Amino acid sequence: MEDTSRFEALAASSAERHALRRELRRRRRTLTPREQQRASEALCRRLRALPEVQRARRLALYLPNDGEIDPTPLISWLRRRGCRLYLPVLRPLAENCLWFVRYHAGTPMVKNRFGIPEPDTRHGAHRARRLPAWALDLVLLPLVGFDPRGERLGMGGGFYDRSFAFTRGPGPRPRLIGVAHDCQRVAALPSASWDVPLDAIISDREVIRP
Questions:
Q1: Is 157 flagged in the annotation as binding?
Q2: What is the pLDDT at residue 51?
Q3: Contacts of 120 (CB under 8 A, 6+ apart)
Q4: Is 27 annotated as a binding residue?
Q5: Contact 101/86 with Cβ under 8 angstroms?
Q6: What are the binding positions for substrate in this chain (predicted)?
Q7: Is 123 annotated in some ligand binding site?
Q8: The model scores a pTM over 0.85
């Protein structure tokens, strides 16, 4: 009976997260192009003011998809500061894990199985173009939802959680900063045991330090 109750509670929690994920994705997709642009500009102003971003020399970010807030206006500023940029790539032959591949204007790009642009895996297969996740200084990762305590909701694939699970232990690790639109903020989110904690969450309106 206790096992059944625990399973039903887990299923209910999973169903709630799925429904909330769908609603928050809908919210960000309904933003107009002008609202998206203003949010992106506000986000990048906040990011430029962060000591972690100012110090970073090896930084991973993402190309926006599905209404995600856009961090790419930060790219030219980062490059002027001598920062090397990396993009996540779905790692071949590894379930729900990421490579981080050097990104510049000439990087050959393809769409992955989710339709998201990423560096071609044939390009990223060369080790000189990849960086181990632990060697990054800072990672900007997109969120589906967040709350004032710093709890967050991702897409549900576990890509970042698997790729950065090592950050729970000793050793070198990057700073992890989640970014999102303010409309993706909710009053409270349940934490999941597999969620890798973030160092900060930045929206177009606030900075949260869990």
A1: yes
A2: 97
A3: 108, 109, 110
A4: no
A5: yes
A6: 63, 68
A7: no
A8: yes
